[in-house]
Amino acid sequence: MNSEKEAALINKRIDASFKRLINTRYQINVVFNHTYTRFIV
């Protein structure tokens, strides 16, 4: 197997899961801020 191709595949996978993690954190922040402001008002 070509190790360069493998490394690129692994990098792509890490990149995808990292973006998913950022998206999840963003959604949690949005939901949290929404409920938080609702409690204050």
Can you put this structure into words, describing what you see?
The longest helix is centred in the middle third of the chain and has 38 residues, at 3-40. This protein has one domain (1-40). By secondary structure, it is an all-alpha fold. Helix content is 93%, strand content 0%.
Largest sheet: none
Overall geometry comes to: rod-shaped
Count the DSSP helices. Answer: 1
| Alpha-carbon distance between the two ends | 60 Å
Q: How many domains?
A: 1
Write down the Rg. 18 Å
* Helicity, as a percent range: over 70%
Oligomer: single chain
Kindly estimate the percentage of residues that lie in beta strands according to DSSP. under 5%
* Helix-strand topology string: H
What structural class do you assign from the helix and strand content? Answer: mainly alpha
Weakly predicted, low-confidence segments: none
The beta-strand count equals: 0
Averaging pLDDT over every residue, what do you get?
90
Key descriptive features of the protein:
41 residues, 93% helix, rod-shaped
What's the SSE blueprint?
Elements: H1 3-40
What's this entry about, in short?
The protein is mostly helical and 41 residues long. It contains 1 helix and no strands. The protein has one domain (1-40).
